[in-house]
Please model this.
Amino acid sequence: MLRRLIEKWRGRKVYKSYGEKPTWLLILLLTASAPCALFYGDVLKQAWPAYNSAVDTVRFVDWGVSAWLLTTLLVWLAVATFHFGQVTLRCTTVLRERLYP
Model:
């Protein structure tokens, strides 16, 4: 059973660009990526002022493990927000070109 799933996965159709994807797949990607981008962006917007004020009070060399972990988490959130935002932007652009010529 697992082999059959692996073979189906390897034999799936791979699209080279967003323009080749069907409309239903673009809508699915859009509805999955837009809420992620909005949620992560809102978390960053709320956490950044507190993080910035806390970091300004401590010298860079005196940061502890928790400060580095928080910094790593916020950088990851920023990268994820950018990624999902770009997927959202690309899907909306292709859908707009396709549905409203």
Residues 23-57 form the longest helix (35 residues).
